[in-house]
Design goal:
It holds the Pfam family TetR_C_13. InterPro entries: DNA-bd_HTH_TetR-type_CS (IPR023772), Homeodomain-like_sf (IPR009057), HTH_TetR (IPR001647), Tet_transcr_reg_TetR-rel_C_sf (IPR036271), TetR_C (IPR011075). It is a single chain. The protein is mostly helical. It has 2 domains: 19-72, Arc Repressor Mutant, subunit A (Orthogonal Bundle), CATH 1.10.10.60; 76-198, Tetracycline Repressor, domain 2 (Orthogonal Bundle), CATH 1.10.357. The chain has 10 helices and no strands. It is elongated and about 60 Å long. Residues 1-15 have low confidence and may be disordered.
Length: 203
């Protein structure tokens, strides 16, 4: 038998390539600059790989963005878990707003929200990217609206409460806080906005 030959590294990819670490760097770049404003050269420099290696590991830039977006939305604390785990719709909205205020002002992450910043920077040429971002936001709003409607039906919220308006208000404030954070607003300022927003909810 011939001796087993050591496998050679794939061309264009460093021997120490760490896919998860590279994806984290791509996520941070997209978060800071948005989808279209992030160049391929910036991505490869931050990820420590060559363009052929990026294409080999992730596909094209758009596929990389969608995977980075999934990473941004994953984790132990997500909008889905916040809404599902909250005892009431009011608590769900309050938690969504507070988590957003803190997440938009992290010490080691770009200010604002990746969903919002990427959508703003997208041109008509990236219609599918904008639609995917909008679909995610609509999904969050729909889940919250259903929880509010449930609380209205069960007498937790008064009959005159408007589930559609309250869910939309929550999402509007979240997106507004993202813009304020990118403009330099402090976490304390955003958390005060959260408390003011919750005062608009019916008792």
């Amino acid at each position: 038998m011939e001796p087993e030959r050591a496998s050679l590294p794939r061309p264009g990819r460093p021997r120490s390539f760490d896919r998860d670490a590279a994806l984290d760097q791509a996520m941070l770049l997209f978060w800071r600059h948005g989808f279209e404003s992030t160049s391929l050269s910036e991505l490869t420099a931050a990820m420590g790989i060559t363009p052929p290696s990026l294409y080999g590991a992730f596909g094209d830039k758009k596929a990389l963005f969608f995977e980075a977006l999934d990473r941004y939305l994953s984790g132990p604390v997500t909008s889905t878990s916040i809404i599902a785990d909250a005892a009431t719709a009011r608590e769900a909205a309050h938690d969504l707003l507070r988590v957003s205020a803190r997440g938009f002002t992290g010490k080691h992450t770009p200010p604002g929200c990746l969903l919002a910043s990427s959508a703003i920077s997208c041109s008509d040429a990236a219609t599918d990217v904008k639609e995917q971002l909008a679909t995610i936001r609509r999904g969050i709003e729909q889940r919250l609206r259903k929880k509010i409607a449930h609380d209205i039906d069960h007498g937790i919220l008064p009959d005159h409460a408007d589930a559609t308006a309250l869910a939309a208000l929550t999402m509007a404030v979240i997106q507004g806080m993202s813009t304020l954070a990118r403009d330099g607003a402090s976490r304390d300022k955003l958390l005060k906005i959260v408390e003011s927003t919750m005062q608009a909810w019916p008792a």
